[in-house]
Design brief:
Layout (H helix, E strand, L loop, with lengths): L12 H7 L4 H7 L1 E5 L1 H8 L5 E6 L1 H6 L1 H9 L3 E4 L2 H7 L8 E6 L5 H6 L4 E5 L5 H13 L4 E5 L8 H6 L9 E5 L1 H10 L3 E5 L5 E2 H7 L6 E5 L8 H4 L4 E4 L11 H17 L11
Parallel strand pairs: 2-3, 5-6, 5-10, 6-7, 8-10, 8-11, 9-11
Antiparallel strand pairs: 1-4, 2-4
Helix pairs in contact: 8-13
Length: about 280
């Protein structure tokens, strides 16, 4: 006979405390955030000292017994909860039965600079959490060493941003709350070339690739999808680059443009003479 859930009421103190983490001010106060679904919880359990608690329905605990086991192995408190409780904590329309509470895991910007990163995504004025999480996922896939969210961007731990990252939040260092001027100055001092991605950019991405200028350490600065980068932010960059539109589409959305730019840099850096070229010893 399956075990009975121990948390039955959405009004319990434990459930109320978890539910409050959907709000930014409570996340900041507690330095905790929600990770929903099996993929996010599995990634959190595999990231050192991150997963604090796990709420699971009886059905989900049986279906994802390996994830629940990993959660217990890293010392997380596991609560079997009624489906109504999970629905109350979750911020999704169709909860998957697992909701984790995780410690903040952002990295100080100074530590990122010390690592001498070769590819960085800077989210300068990105306000939509889904866009932020998706760009983080693109950066992870392209092999970037870090992501920086400026103080003008959305909260990294917004539940929608966490979901949109599809686990990439747990894979690479992310600095938050860095003024864009400080981000650019710090990265430039670390030997990183600054490229601003903007549809009205003077330079063409294809031309940059043809010139062979993209093989070195690079940071891409991405702005708001609706209105792009402010003039003062574009002025901080070494070049303002547009993704060429060869067809009839009016534009690309932010995440698609970010993927194109980051992969262009990743390929150039791995080509002969690029900063990631492996030379025989």
């Amino acid at each position: 006979m399956p075990p009975a859930p121990e948390l039955l009421s959405p009004r319990s103190a434990r459930v109320s405390a978890a539910r409050r983490l959907a709000k930014r001010n409570f996340r900041g106060k507690e330095r905790l955030f929600l990770a929903e679904g099996p993929q996010a919880v599995r990634e959190a359990a595999g990231h050192a000292d991150t997963l604090v608690e796990l709420f699971a329905t009886v059905e989900a605990a049986e279906r994802y017994a390996d994830i629940v086991g990993e959660a217990r192995a890293v010392g997380a408190r596991v609560h079997l909860a009624d489906e109504a409780v999970i629905a109350d904590i979750s911020t999704t329309v169709t909860p998957q039965g697992l909701v984790g509470i995780c410690r903040f895991l952002d990295t100080p910007f100074e530590e990122i600079l010390k690592s001498r990163p070769k590819l960085v995504a800077v989210l300068a004025h990105v306000r939509d959490p889904g866009n932020a999480g998706t760009v983080l996922r693109c950066a992870d896939a392209a092999g970037a060493e870090a992501v920086v969210l400026t103080d003008a961007s959305v909260d990294l731990y917004n539940p929608k941003a966490v979901r949109a990252s599809v686990g990439s939040l747990f894979h690479l260092p992310v600095a938050v709350g860095v003024p864009v001027e400080a981000a650019v100055a710090g990265l430039r001092s670390a030997g990183v070339r600054i490229l601003a991605a903007d549809g009205a950019g003077e330079d063409d991405l294809d031309a940059e690739l043809d010139k062979g200028t993209m093989g070195g350490p690079t940071a891409w600065v991405f702005g708001n999808e609706a209105w792009g980068l402010p003039e003062e932010t574009r002025g901080l960059a070494d070049a303002v680059v547009r993704v060429p539109i060869h067809g009839k589409a009016e534009s690309l959305n932010l995440a698609t443009a970010a993927a194109v730019c980051l992969y262009a840099s990743a390929r150039a850096q791995r080509a002969f003479g690029g900063c990631r070229t492996v030379t025989p010893s």
